[in-house]
Design brief:
Layout: H1 12-17, H2 20-40, H3 43-62, H4 66-74
Amino acid sequence: MNSPSNTLGGSPASSELLAPSSSRYRASAVLLVGVARIVENRSIYVAPLIVAAVQVFALAISTIGLAERRRAVLLLDDQ
């Protein structure tokens, strides 16, 4: 008569996936691959930088004449 074993059934590959050290290694490998793919595709980080630069430039342009506009608003009479 066979006695039941306490090990998980299946192939050795499935038991390797359950090992904590290999799962940490695979998670870090997935993370590194993801970062490498982001770095190789420049539009992912260059496009937001360009948009931010345009917004900063627009803010700088909008501040031209701000003191005069503020002064004009403060001089308005309440009616």
